[in-house]
Amino acid sequence: NNAVAQVMERFGRIDVLINNAGTGAVAPAEDITDDQFANEMNIDLFGSFKMARACAKKAMIPAKYGRIINIASVAADQPIPYINVYAATKAFVLRYSRALNRELKSRGIGVTAVCPFWTKTEFFGRAIDQGEEPVVKKYIAMYEPDQIVTRAWRDAQRGKDVSRYGFKARGQSFLTKIVPHSLVMDIWMGQQDLK
């Protein structure tokens, strides 16, 4: 990986990797093009995998304080109609991060999956097709990026494999573990007035 090689050449090691690149189509499944799908896979899946692998393999040695932070989402906990590919890629990021944390723990590298709730970022402007009726019409909560970042860094330093900020985010994650996903999807569809 060229980016990792350049950092290694200049600094000799990498202490922290934050995989924050991500994209997501918010649209009916039949409207997602092959190129959009491939783009989501390349950024959300392969990007996180390749950067984490490159850092763990070469750059975090010795890795007494090595940290890999992968940005997942609360969407990782449930299937979400009209945001289905994004939710599926974030489910991968969450499960991959937790397993990788176990694998790398003995080498002193901690891996944390950050699962933010709705956050005020540019994601929405890019994910929503302008001129179309938006899929997401109701936001239960909207957090500031600095709230997510502060909690994520604290959790990563404490060695947690998952970081969730906010009562609503943690509550929703808990509920998706005990409530049938068919009901979770019904609630989502009702909230957003989707058919």
What is the 3D form? globular
Percent in helix:
40-55%
Uncertain stretches: none
Q: What is the N-to-C succession of helices and strands?
A: HEHEHEHHEHH
Largest sheet: 4 strands, parallel
Mean pLDDT equals 85
Q: Could you tell me the radius of gyration in angstroms?
A: 17 Å
What is the beta-strand fraction? 5-15%
| Spatial strand order of the main sheet | 1-2-3-4
- Tell me the number of strands: 4
Please give the count of helices.
7
The N- and C-terminal alpha carbons lie at a distance of 44 Å
Helix vs. strand class: alpha/beta
Helix-strand layout with pairing:
Elements: H1 2-11, E1 16-19, H2 34-59, E2 67-71, H3 84-104, E3 110-114, H4 123-127, H5 145-157, E4 162-163, H6 167-178, H7 181-191
Parallel strand pairs: 1-2, 2-3, 3-4
Helix pairs in contact: 2-3
Q: Could you describe the 3D structure shown?
A:
There is one protein chain. This protein is an alpha/beta fold. It contains seven helices and four strands. A four-stranded parallel beta sheet has the order 1-2-3-4. Helix 2 (34-59) links the parallel strand 1 (16-19) and strand 2. Helix 2 (34-59) runs parallel beside helix 3 (84-104). The protein is globular. The N and C termini lie far apart (44 Å). 30% of the residues are buried. The model has no long low-confidence stretch (mean pLDDT 85).
